[in-house]
Amino acid sequence: MSVDLDLKLIDGKSSSVFLDSEIQYQKLWWEYFDHTNIKERKKIKLHLQHVPKRYWKYLMEKKIF
User: Fold this and answer.
1) d(CA 42, CA 17)
2) What is the CA angle 62-4-51, rounded to 5?
3) Helix (H) or strand (E) run with residue 20 in it
4) Alpha-carbon Rg of the chain, whole angstroms?
């Protein structure tokens, strides 16, 4: 099986590559992360140890819809 995707399309905010249900799940996950995150207890140093900054562009919770 092979999939030919244009990566520029995936990086867009409203991509036609994903189904509507996938976009809804992405938004749902972002909302969950946003509501469970306690801004006063944010530990950037620890966060960088677990997930380096170069990978943040692939994380759903870092994207804004």
Assistant:
1) 33
2) 25
3) helix 20-36
4) 14
pTM of the model: 0.52
Does residue 9 contact residue 41 with C-beta atoms inside 8 Å?
A: no
Q: Looking at residue 12, what DSSP letter applies?
A: S
According to the model, what pLDDT value does residue 65 have?
Answer: 61
What is the C-alpha end-to-end distance of the chain, expressed in Å?
31
Cα–Cα–Cα angle for 29, 33, 38, rounded to 5 degrees: 170
Residue range 11-61, pLDDT digits in tens: 555 556 678 888 888 888 888 888 888 888 888 888 888 888 888 888 877
Tokens encoding 6? 């244009």
